[in-house]
């Protein structure tokens, strides 16, 4: 990205920057004679399509799809990340961009990350571990999209994601490969090890897995009026 281009300009020009916060791949929802939704992940597309079929609008559908992807495509996306949402309204064609990038915690200081002689952060502390975590922007961004452009509330559109988190879903080839590739890191964390390494073995393609902690978080968000605190 050219240095003269701001993040918001980049979002507007490219359509939708999803990063780790929304859906892996390209996604688009459209209202009109023929409604459709395209995502990089099947369960999310199915959830969004069901929302459209039930009378929801494009924003309702894409938010539902994003929340589902945050459950079944954990290696590439999730509610603890960041993203962006681009809406083109009709009939005037006005464009609205919602930027919900993550922010550095207030306690982070310029000298928080020690660097070596080559300028690299020691121990990859800015990439792995608690210090690498930014303040999530996804739920607040999705809530804002629903408030401004949606016709359904968060409690409605989060239901498919809660169902997948509670009932489980088959691990995809990409999911399994990502977990295997990160095994050395993930296995050192008790929570990750419990979630991804049943009986010490990494998640395999086709194996059914559940993310009940994720289900609990989403259920709490559904019961509150808004996604306050996120």
From TrEMBL:
Pfam families: G_glu_transpept. Residues 219-230 have a biased composition (Basic residues). PROSITE patterns: TAT. One of its GO terms (molecular function) is transferase activity. It comes from the Bacteria. Keywords: Transferase. Transmembrane segments: none annotated. Residues 200-230 are annotated as: Disordered. Belongs to the gamma-glutamyltransferase family. This is Uncharacterized protein. It comes from Gemmata massiliana.
């Amino acid at each position: 990205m050219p240095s003269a281009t701001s993040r918001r300009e980049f979002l507007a020009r490219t359509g939708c920057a999803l990063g780790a916060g929304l859906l892996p791949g390209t996604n688009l929802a459209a209202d009109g004679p023929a409604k459709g939704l395209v995502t990089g992940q099947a369960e999310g597309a199915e959830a969004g399509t069901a929302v459209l079929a039930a009378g929801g609008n494009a924003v309702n559908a894409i938010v539902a799809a994003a929340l589902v992807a945050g459950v079944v495509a954990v290696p590439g996306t999730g509610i603890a990340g960041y993203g962006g949402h681009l809406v083109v309204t009709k009939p005037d064609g006005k464009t609205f961009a919602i930027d919900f990038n993550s922010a550095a915690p207030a306690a982070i200081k310029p000298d928080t990350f020690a660097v070596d002689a080559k300028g690299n952060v020691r121990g990859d502390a800015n990439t792995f571990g608690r210090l690498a975590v930014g303040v999530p922007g996804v739920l607040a961004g999705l809530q804002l999209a629903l408030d401004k452009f949606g016709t359904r509330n968060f409690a409605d559109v989060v239901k498919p994601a809660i169902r997948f988190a509670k009932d489980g879903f088959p691990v995809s080839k990409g999911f399994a490969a990502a977990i295997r590739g990160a095994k050395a890191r993930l296995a050192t964390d008790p929570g990750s090890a419990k979630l991804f390494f049943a009986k010490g073995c990494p998640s395999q393609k086709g194996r059914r897995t559940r993310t009940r902690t994720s289900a609990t978080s989403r259920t709490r968000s559904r019961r509150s009026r808004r996604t306050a605190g996120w």
